[in-house]
Amino acid sequence: MPVMEGPLSKWTNVMQGWFVLDEGHGILFYYTSKEKMLKGQRRGCVRLKDAIIGIDSEDDSTFTVKVDHKTFHFQARDADEREQWTRALEVVIRLQNRGPSSSLTQRYHPNLPEFEKRLTESDAYLKMLENQIKNLTREEGSAERRGKSETRRDHQFRRANV
C-alpha cells in the first residue's frame, strides 16, 4: 500500500524518476517515470528495514537513505517536499523494525466479519461485471446480425437494379 509517491532525483544513478513508498512491504520503489510505474516497469528498489535517514545540511532539498552498507542520495523539489518524504520514510522504517507484532501487520489481517463484508461486496461487483459482459455480448451479436441483414438487402437491391 503506497504511503507516498512522487518525483525525486536519485544521485546514485543520476536519475529523475517516480518513487513509490510502500509501507506494506517496507520498500521504496523507483521508476524512470510515472507512466513506467503505471505499466509496472520498475527500475529498482530500496529495502527500508534497518535503514537510516540522513539530512544534508548543505542543501535543504537533499537527504540520504543508508541501508545494507549502501548510501542512496535523493533530492526533493524543495525543503517541504523533503520533509514529507523523510517523515514518511521514517514511519515506514519504524514499522518495519518493529517486526510482525506491529499495528501495520494487524491492519492487514481484518476480522472475520470485515472479511465477509468485503467478500460479499466483491461478489456483487463480479456479478455486475458478468451481467455487463452478457449485455455487451448480446448487443454485439444483435449489431452483427443487423449488419449482415443490411448487407444482404443491399446485395439484393443491387441485383434487382442491374
Please describe the structure with a list of short key phrases separated by commas or semicolons.
PH-domain like, 7 strands, 162 residues, Oxysterol-binding protein-related protein 9, alpha+beta, transport, PH_domain, seven-stranded antiparallel beta sheet, sterol binding, 2 domains
In short:
The protein is α+β, with helices and mostly antiparallel strands.
Can you tell me about this structure?
Residues 137-162 are annotated as: Disordered. It holds the Pfam family PH. Keywords: Lipid transport, Lipid-binding, Transport. Residues 1-94 form the PH domain. InterPro entries: Oxysterol-bd, PH-like_dom_sf, PH_domain. The protein has 162 residues and is an alpha+beta fold. It has two domains: 2-107, Pleckstrin-homology domain (PH domain)/Phosphotyrosine-binding domain (PTB) (PH-domain like, Roll), CATH 2.30.29; 110-162. It is built from four helices and seven strands. The protein has helices spanning 34-39, 79-98, 103-107, 112-160, and strands at 2-10, 15-22, 27-31, 44-47, 52-55, 62-67, 70-75. It has a seven-stranded antiparallel beta sheet. The protein is elongated and about 90 Å long. The N and C termini lie far apart (69 Å). The model is unreliable at 101-107 (pLDDT under 50).
